[in-house]
Amino acid sequence: MARRTKPKLAKEGLTQAFALSCLLVMGAWVLFGPSGLLAWSENNRLLTERHKELTLLTEERNALKNRVSLLDPRQVDPDMAGQLLRANLNVVHPDEVVLTIP
C-alpha cells in the first residue's frame, strides 16, 4: 500500500505560509502602525508641544481671571477703570498732558 503524503504536506505548507504572513503583518503593524514603535518619538514630541501650549494658555487664563476680578462690579479697581476709559473713550483728566510720538 502506497500512502499519499503530498496533499497533506501542501496543506501544511499553505497553513504555515498563512500563519507566517499573519505574523509578519502583525509585526509590521507593531513597528509602523499609528501607535507603533516608530511613531513613539513623534507622539513624545507632540506631547511636549501640547504641554508648552497648555502652559501658555494657563498663563493667559490666569491673566484674564485677574482682569475680570479687577473689573468686579461690586468693587472696581480705579486704575483698571481709568485705563479702560482712556483706551476706549479717549477721555483724559483736565490736568493730564498728552504727548504724541511721531
Write the layout of secondary structure elements.
Layout: H1 6-32, H2 40-70, H3 78-89
Question: Brief description of this entry?
Answer:
By secondary structure, the chain is mostly helical.
Describe this entry's structure for a reader.
This protein has 102 residues and is mainly α. The protein has two domains: 9-38; 44-91. Helices cover 69% and strands 0% of the residues. The protein contains three helices and no strands. The chain is rod-shaped, with a radius of gyration of 36 Å. The mean pLDDT is 85.
User: Nearest-angstrom radius of gyration?
Assistant: 36 Å
Measured by DSSP, the beta-strand proportion falls in under 5%
Q: How many domains make up the 3D coordinates?
A: 2
Structural class: mainly alpha
Q: Which outline best applies?
A: rod-shaped
Order of helices and strands: HHH
What composes the largest sheet? none
Q: How many strands in all?
A: 0
Unreliable stretches, pLDDT < 50, 5 or more residues? none
How would you classify the quaternary structure?
A: single chain
Number of helices: 3
